[in-house]
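User: I'm putting together a teaching handout on how sequence relates to shape, and I'd like one worked example. Could you take Peroxisomal membrane protein from Gossypium schwendimanii, show the sequence you're using, and then write out its predicted structure as tokens right after it?

Assistant: Happy to. First the sequence, then the structure tokens directly below it.
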Amino acid sequence: MSDALINGLAGAGGGIIAQLITYPLQTVNTRQQTERDLKKEKRKLGTIEQMCQVVKQEGWGRLYGGLTPSLVGTTASQGVYYYFYQIFRNKAESKALERQKKGIGDGSVGMLSSLIVAALSGCVNVLLTNPIWVVVTRMQTHTNILKKDHSNRLATPALEETVLSAIEPFSYSTGHAIQEVYDEAGFWGFWKGVFPTLIMVSNPAMQFMLYETMLKRLKKQRSLSNPDNNGVTALEIFLLGALAKLGATVVTYPLNVVKV
């Protein structure tokens, strides 16, 4: 089994676990990003408050709305990304070694090359998996749309909430979301938001650039203090990955809001 395939499978598995743990937060985050009809004077709910409100008004199941296509999307997205990342990374490493033989560089992949590798992998991933995320976003936010459609049809707000909470779990499935997107915009509707999403490849690109840079420095520092041990532990890899993702997310979050 090739390194690229192993990386793809490992990335898909890790992505599924992370998705299952964090999905309720993602649902609330998407709703906050798409909420436009609140009056300015009305206090906006915090993340925990909004989670509690969703559970109270719509049930626990709504926090996991769109989970199935999201897991499919995560599996595909992570698998595709890590697979192509390893392929492009191997090519970059080969070129770095060739340059070293010519007396140029130290044989390692530089920061710019790491950025390009991550960006190319991200572009391939976006073009292949964008339709899945369009459907996922529809399923995470459809409750607000449904309320708008029914807001003037039911006698009282209480009756409206009762009816909506009763029909929502059964009335909107992955198939409904797909059909809705297709009816609205046709085949190319599944690539809505693809341009800001392509710009968003700067997020994983920055993440991997930061990760590779920090990892290289950590190994170098460790080898100087102990030449026989320049390895890193799983916990250190986790922390480096978390820090890299945090930095990339802070920088690119406005683009994510536009995309959604």
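A couple of points you could highlight for students: The CA atoms of residues 36 and 75 lie 31 Å apart. Confidence is low (pLDDT under 50) at residues 144-152, 163-170.
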